[in-house]
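Methods — Computational structure assignment.
A single polypeptide chain was analysed. Its primary sequence is given first, followed by the predicted tertiary structure written as structure tokens.
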Amino acid sequence: MAERYQCVDEFSTFGSRIPNMLHALSPVDGRYRRHTEPLAKWLSEQGLIQHRVEVEIEYFLQLVAMPLPQLADFPKEQKEALREVHRQFSEADAQWVKDQEKVTNHDVKAVEYFVKDAMDRLGVGQWKEFVHFGLTSQDVNNTAIPLSLKRATEEVVLPLLEATTNDVAALAKEWKEVPMLARTHGQPASPVTLGKELQVFVDRLRGQRKALDGAVYAAKFGGATGQFNAHRVAYPDVDWPSFGQSFVEGTLGLTRTPVTTQIEPYDHLAAWCDALRRIHTVLMDLDKDMWTYISMDYFKQRIVEGEVGSSAMPHKVNPIDFENSEGNLGVANALLAHFAAKLPISRLQRDLTDSTVMRNLGVPLAHSVVAMKATRKGLAKLVLNGDKLAADLEDNWAIVAEAIQTILRRESYPKPYEALKALTRTNGKINQEVMHDFIQGLEVSDEVKRELSNITPANYLGFASELVRG
């Protein structure tokens, strides 16, 4: 019987071969793998190794292009062949590196040996000692990791954020004329439109996205402790800081931090974490509001064939997508908060606490992807219950008291606020009849009475619909 519980199959992913999802320790590599798969290209173990290989090879080719005298006769036709080593990096290549790491007990040294082995196979092994020339492992890590993070953010996260924002914007436009009772402190308040309330989230998401769009992906590249000691002692006449700047910014497309210890200070990475956290916080606020509107019956949810809402109560259709999103956003933000607080702190010229933390950068991004997909799924299920929105407005005529007392102020009516306060707080249920009786009893002109009587909970909306741009 024991054989039944053995992991007998695997599913292939970019970056590694993951055991059967039933055995995954993390849901982002198990239950949610179908959602997080696109991130693997950049942030899996294989993705990290491939980016390290890319840095090592592109650095070597930059040395060739200087040119250093010892590399002057490196065959030009082999440059692109060497680049293909990182461009066509395979799972078998990654496994070669992992097997080598078992010997070296050092992940970056294993990458160096992989590149050297590739050069031997290409027939250019005589120049291989210029691979990793003058570098420390953090020159590779602190370029490869921000490069992979930049690509994952730009290729996966930002497009999904754009799609999520556009979904909200489309609903805002669709419902921009739908009046809705507002609630401040949970109590009935001046009415809004449903579209305008959604536009609030559209504007917030777009505003916070600017920080992520403008994120600085900073890299350290300066040798063992940051000032090109080994480079300068070998080639004292070369302007190595300018070389490093050109390589990091021109070749890799990152931003080089010119003065560092052995590691990049991570201040910009902390800012990236905080920018993503703020986006998540806005999405969490949206999830909570949509959940609440569903609980108030402002929305029904489209039935998905075969889905079960409750194992015990057949009638239930639960807002599980918004709940799923909220939970994943919470996990992501907890990790991002730790990263932002921890990473900029390193003892003296460096300690190793950043290493294990940096290996987890893909985890909050994975939860972010799961969350945004869940929010989109939840939004797509919403069915407006216009009758309920209209009934709530009709049931709360007291909310036009603000409008009436404001017009009475315009007309210099004595103590209008106090008059409306007395009406709404001492007459029990305020309905249209009670409000109109009050208006007719006011000592104002018939024209003003008509003006006041035309105000309803459904039309007292200010510029709500005009504020919706989608």
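Note: The radius of gyration is 31 Å.
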